Amino acid sequence: MRTLQTILRLAMLAICFAGTGSLRADPPAVSADADEQTSGDVRRTLQAAKFLSVSARNISLSTRDGIVRLKGRVASERERGDVADIVRGVGSVIGINDDLLIDAPGPSGRKYLYK
Question: Would the pTM of this model clear 0.85, i.e. be above it?
Fold first, then answer.
């Protein structure tokens, strides 16, 4: 199954780059206004997800060329995945750069962060 997926991906790449004379793919041009709109849409969607912790709903985010960068703290690996799923669900998001840190209890009960 993986071999078939790889072959299909390579075939799609060959079709995309046929006749371009280059294998370099420029990212789609996305305006600054579109990036601001995407950031606002993502922010509103996260704020509406009341099942997320307060820190997860208030993470820092920025958008450039449709790629959303997430920074901040979340309560768990599961919540990190929930945030990523929510962001991917916003129609104008092309991709995600996940720089989220996870709050986790240490052996002594004190919290520490890990990525």
Answer: no
